[in-house]
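Sample log: NrdH-redoxin.
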Amino acid sequence: MACMSPMFRRSDRRTESKAPAEHLVTLIRKPGCHLCDDAQEVIEKVCADLGVPWEGKDITEDEELHRQYWEQIPVVLVDGAQHTFWRVNEERLRKALAG
C-alpha cells in the first residue's frame, strides 16, 4: 500500500477555514433605504465583534451593481459571494464569518 506524501496531497480551499479577519463583508446599498440602514447596523456590530473588515458600495454609483442587484437591495456579500439580501440575520452572518 502506497503512502501519499504530504507534498502531493491536494488542498480543497472550499473546506479550509478562514480566520474572521481574512473575510470581507460587502454591503451593496442605496441612499434612503431603511432596509439598507438596518443591514448596516447588523454588519457593523458583527464585523466589530469578530474583527472582520467590511465595505459599503452604492448601486447609484456603479452601473454593473445596479443592473445586477437593484431588485434585491440591500445585498450582503461575504468574500465576493452573495450571502443574503433584504434582511440580514445576525446569527447567520456570524456563523458564515466564524468558520
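Observation: Residues 1-16 have pLDDT under 50 and may be disordered.
Observation: Residues 21 and 94 are 13 Å apart (CA to CA).
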